[in-house]
Structures are given as C-alpha cells and as structure tokens.
Write a structure and sequence with these properties.
The protein has 297 residues and is of the alpha+beta class. The chain has 2 domains: 3-64 and 166-201, no CATH class; 68-152 and 215-295, Metalloproteases ("zincins"), catalytic domain (Zincin-like, 2-Layer Sandwich). Helices cover 66% and strands 7% of the residues.
C-alpha cells in the first residue's frame, strides 16, 4: 500500500464508519421503539441523534480529545526546541505545522488529533520532552506527524466519539428496559424484538471496541514506518519505544476512550506477552514487535 492509497482508504473509511454508525443507531432506535412501546417515532429521534453526533464528531472530536487530556498549547517562545523540531519535520513531510500541546505528566507518551493536516495538533507529555534524547523525541514527533499526513487522526478521533456514543446508548437502553412500556404488538412479535434488543445491547459495545482497537493497531505499524521514512533514522523511534516500555508509570489523564490515540498504551495495564483473546482488547501492537521491526529497517 502506497502513502496515497492509504490516505484515500482512510478518507473512505471515515465516511463509511459515520454512515454505518447512523444506520446502526437507527436500527437500535427501531428495536427500542418496538420493545418500549414508543413505536416508530423513536426511530426519527435515533436518526436525529446519530446524525448530529456524527457531524459533531467530525468537526469537534479533536477539541474533545484535547480537553479530556488536559493539554496546554505551547508555541515557539514557550517550547522553542519542540516547536523547531516539529517545524523542520513538517517541511520534510510537506504538511502545515500543527498546533503543539503539552500534557504535564512525567509518563512518556504523545498523540496527534485533527480532521486534516490543516486542522491538526500534536501533543507530547512533559515526560517525553524531558526524558527522551533529541533523536528519540524526533522519532516520536515524526510518528505523530505521519498519523496526521495519513489522515489517521481524522478516523481515530471520530471513532472515539462514535464508540463512546454507542456504549452510552446501549447502557441507557439496558437500564430503560426495566421501566419499559408494554408493546402493542402480539406476544410473539414482542418477544422477537425483545431478543433483538438484548442482542444489540450485549454486542454493540464489544463490536464498537474491537473496531476501534483494530483500526488503531494497524495504523501504529504504518506510522512507525512513516517516522523511519521521514527521519531516515528508525533507531531513534526504536530507542524511544524502548524507554516507553521501561516506563511503568501510567498517564493519569488517559482513559479507555482515548487510549488508542497515544503512541503507546498509556494505561500500562497490559503486558506485551498475553493470550490471543486478551490481545483482541489491546489498544496497541506489542512494543517489542514494533521495536524489532524498526531496528530491522
């Protein structure tokens, strides 16, 4: 896959995910309306909510992620070394210089957000700036800029909002079932819709989470390769990932909704050597595997 085909693929997948989200929530609303007795009118409500959420996530999901992380904007005057490093990499990558933010935390990590390279931001923890050597920090910065250039950030941040919405709605749906009205349909029809509703409630958070994690894992490998191509020094990022692997401190502001945005799992609650089933729920590919690939370039 070339860089251009990857960008086109990410753009298509963004719209596909948003459309599927609207359709899924509409089906969700139809089943809920049948079970609760609200009827088809609830479908209109579900369609409205899902459409508004999709539009909102497209334009404002990056601001939400930055707000959740507690990131503070910096500039050329406050962080000259970081700003100049990012600026030089952007010249090589052929993209505008994104806004730069810092998270005051000694854990080593970073992430990028934005719907396109013109509306993007890259975020570093103070731990990354203080603990990494220049070539290591450059490798991390190039990794995040690769996400921006490849339009990974648009896809990944939108997924944060949509997955969160599906999870919240399914939880609300499950709770409201205890107070539902009797359906006007016959018992057999009502029982069928009840089963469908329960299946949707049970599977929707799981499916949404697996989609989010699968999207994130695949793009980490590609961004690692993009970093190596941009810096011409894959060892720099490999050394940074080794320091991240040794750093056992969790990032306090991170949570399960935003964990897949970071260059490495910020929750520090999973080991690289885990079972295949547990690996389904890991937000990132194993660090050891990423390091070996980089050192083998």
């Amino acid at each position: 896959m070339t860089i251009y085909s990857q960008i086109d693929s990410n753009k298509r997948k963004t719209w596909v995910i948003m459309v599927l989200f609207v359709l899924f929530i509409t089906a969700f609303g139809y089943a809920f309306g049948k079970v609760s007795g609200y009827g088809n009118g609830f479908v209109v409500f579900a369609l409205f909510i899902s459409s508004v959420t999709s539009i909102f996530s497209y334009f404002f999901s990056d601001s939400i992620a930055l707000g959740i992380s507690g990131a503070v904007k910096v500039d050329r005057n406050t962080e000259p070394k970081v700003f100049k490093m990012v600026e030089n990499l952007c010249i090589g990558a052929g993209i505008p210089v994104p806004k730069i933010y810092l998270i005051k935390d000694t854990a080593i990590n970073a992430f990028a957000v934005g719907r396109d390279p013109k509306h993007a931001a890259v975020v570093f923890t103070t731990g990354a700036v203080d603990k990494l050597e220049d070539e290591e920090l450059e490798g991390v910065a190039a990794h995040e800029l690769s996400h921006i250039k490849n339009f990974d950030t648009r896809l990944m941040v939108i997924v944060v909002v949509l997955v969160g919405t599906v999870t919240l709605l399914s939880d609300w749906f499950a709770r409201s079932m205890f107070y539902r009205k009797r359906s006007r349909d016959d018992n057999n029809s009502g029982a069928i819709f009840m089963i469908i509703a329960l299946v949707l409630v049970a599977l929707s958070p799981l499916i949404a989470t697996l989609i989010k994690l699968a999207i994130s894992r695949n793009r980490e490998y590609l961004a690692d390769a993009g970093s190596a191509l941009l810096t011409r020094y894959p060892v720099g990022l490999a050394a940074a990932l080794e320091k991240i692997a040794e750093d056992k401190e969790p990032l306090e502001v991170a949570n399960k909704a935003t964990a897949h945005l970071y260059i490495s799992n910020p929750l520090k609650n999973q080991k690289d050597s885990i079972s295949w089933f547990a690996a389904l729920f890991n937000t990132h590919p194993p660090l050891n595997d990423r390091i070996q690939r980089l050192r083998g370039m």
